[in-house]
Amino acid sequence: NLMVDYIDLYLIHWPVAVTPGKAFPFSKEDILPMDFKSVWESMEECQRLGLTKAIGVSNFSCKKIEILLATAKIPPAVNQVEMNPVWQQRKLEEFCKEKGIVITAYSPLGGDGAPTGTNKVMECEILREIAEAKGKTIAQVCLRWAYEQGISFIVKSFNKERMKENLGIFDWSLSLDELQKIKQIPQQKRFVGQDFVAEEGPYKSSIQELWDGEI
């Protein structure tokens, strides 16, 4: 259906399964436990067959990655998670670095405008002060911060000027003092995955169960 011979990266989007044939939005009754071992074995086979160059995960906690690594023959290349200066995920970042897993940040600017987005990143006073002092935009400060952490990131824009702005992060750097200020920003997760918490599913009680107490 994709009309290609291979894909570059194949991810497990969330650490949950749904009834075959169902798509979002799905009912709570369709949320199922994921058999990490068998799913990952199938993805490893896809990579061995050359159908994908790399395989990875998304929205996985440290604990869930540990479960996966316990039986994996090919470790995940990527863990794609929400990450920005307002949700820095330092524990997860260090864990993935130790395991050789690249973090890809989605919503690196907060996802403002999306149904589950937040304006807390683009309206952060600390980021605004840093941006003004450097003659940059808040978006550029956010992307440069991620770049300096060794984090890849996904940005979305159909605006030519914003695309140029996003590329203008490679000929300057943040000072140690500025990085320390960013580290002190109060943390708040944007998208907690509430849709996957249900009495009928594997995560019955709270979002903390879904995220293994890591948020």
Automatic annotation (TrEMBL):
Gene3D superfamilies: NADP-dependent oxidoreductase domain. SUPFAM superfamilies: NAD(P)-linked oxidoreductase (SSF51430). Residues 1-185 form the NADP-dependent oxidoreductase domain. InterPro entries: AKR, Aldo/ket_reductase_CS, NAD(P)_OxRdtase_dom_sf, NADP_OxRdtase_dom. GO terms for molecular function: oxidoreductase activity. This is Aldo/keto reductase.
